């Protein structure tokens, strides 16, 4: 098996996949143009063959890493003999070449999923039209071919190294963490997944039609990519909180923002595609957002690999690679925007309208606010590097700027989210709307005084009230719709799955906002302590009982033992925490591993900053530690909300037992 999955075999498979991707991109389009069904039918087998070739290439790279093949430059720079096997695999996407191979492999898996989707037939009229599928696969093949060519020419993961070292350098110690082992694949899956809605948008522009049935076929792909990106961002935020040791969850790092930007436009796209499907409106919004979201995903790839950012996430080792990706971004993003400018005005204009007091209006306002938020984050992220590039001025744009600009936009967005759940399609009257909103309004109003008493600032209290408004509006809408069912059929499963999914997603947003508001009241104390020292924080006693040392698989550990008691040093023990410092001798680096007690209403958080040795006049050694102690109210709600949001997306994707209703503008063929 080791002979089969050799680096040369992986290199050949990558080159074969690139050739197959080019064929997948060219031949089906030629067949569609000449109405040549044999060429059109090649899209499916070519997509599956490309996926198999890339999976083979990825398996070859994993085999080389597990086998400590340090003749590969990638393995020598990111692995070591004593590195745990799980991180020998995870380390492959903790660098430029391996992460790019994972990127194109994930794209091929999305293509394979589209190729395996049942097509339209007499027995399955709701299936994806075969000619549309061929065009989508061809467009995705062209996207994949560009990145695979990039992988082969400038970022070859199978590049040999001579002389072969006896051992590798090991991976970045910060990345040797379970959260970072899972976070990048989820994030990349979300990035790459938005290539499918992008292909739908380009296909609609080429075909000259974007109707309700087109949106129905696109919707599951939008939701899948959005849910995976949500999970990726959530896990990355949790890693920042639990590993970096700063006590925070989001630092407005440029690469963090690069993931947030497509999430914002992807959320707007998700709502727009629902409007197109339900009401055959907002086509232009849907097309533009699909293009923009994928372009922003590519921009994140460019920022990480261009060398213009200084971040723990960045692979800033060769700016020439960034220029290659910038060229791909210009080709795919710029070319698609040019096509949009030419073809979008010629799209059929829907005759139907909608009232200002309707769900369509609420979702349109939602799009405007989300896109404005995206523009603000994009400006704050790109302004410093452009000032450095153009004028040589070094600027820092951080938390004060983003808080001051994003919070005023988030508050009205939350207000609209609560109202939108109660609004029907087309139009309604205020006297009908207010009774549906009354329960949520009463719940929110009843918590005004507790909110201003519990939360540390008026802004945090107001944000928490709006988060509660979103949660209560979603739950009350579910109850009202359940009561609206006929007698005898008021079971939860009778409600549409899409309603459950939307309610879960909105509840998740509200829970996350509550967590963020709670963290505004975080209490922190920085102390220097010897074993036996006591410190008080928020009415609890924290005692450093011992400092110990031991060995890990490829690192040395210094561990602090903390005992936390209620009230004072004589109170009952609440818990024990053991924060660590891990020293990696090969890299000459150290990492912090915090200890956290997660509780429903708060986190008790301890980080060990450093350990000092002092000698007394008798020559005996005494050790002291720098400790960072936190009490973080509602901290876990931040990540709980992200998981609930993603679960809402996953619920929407579950197969429905109901047959899809016919929609206007049937898409029978793809010209």
What do you see in this structure?
It is found in: Cell inner membrane. Residues 326-653 form the Cytochrome c-type biogenesis protein CcmF C-terminal domain. InterPro entries: CcmF_C, Cyt_c_assembly, Cyt_c_biogenesis, Cyt_c_biogenesis_CcmF. Keywords: Cell inner membrane, Cell membrane, Cytochrome c-type biogenesis, Lyase, Membrane, Transmembrane, Transmembrane helix. The strands form two sheets. Strands 2, 3, 4, 5, 6 and 7 form a six-stranded antiparallel beta sheet that branches. Helices cover 59% and strands 12% of the residues. It has helices at residues 7-33, 37-40, 43-66, 73-78, 85-90, 96-116, 130-153, 178-193, 195-207, 212-243, 254-279, 283-305, 319-343, 359-391, 399-420, 430-446, 448-454, 458-483, 497-519, 635-653; strands at residues 523-529, 534-537, 540-551, 556-566, 573-577, 580-584, 589-593, 595-598, 602-615, 621-633. The two termini are 47 Å apart. A hairpin with a 6-residue loop joins strand 4 (556-566) and strand 5. The chain is α+β, with helices and mostly antiparallel strands and 671 residues long.
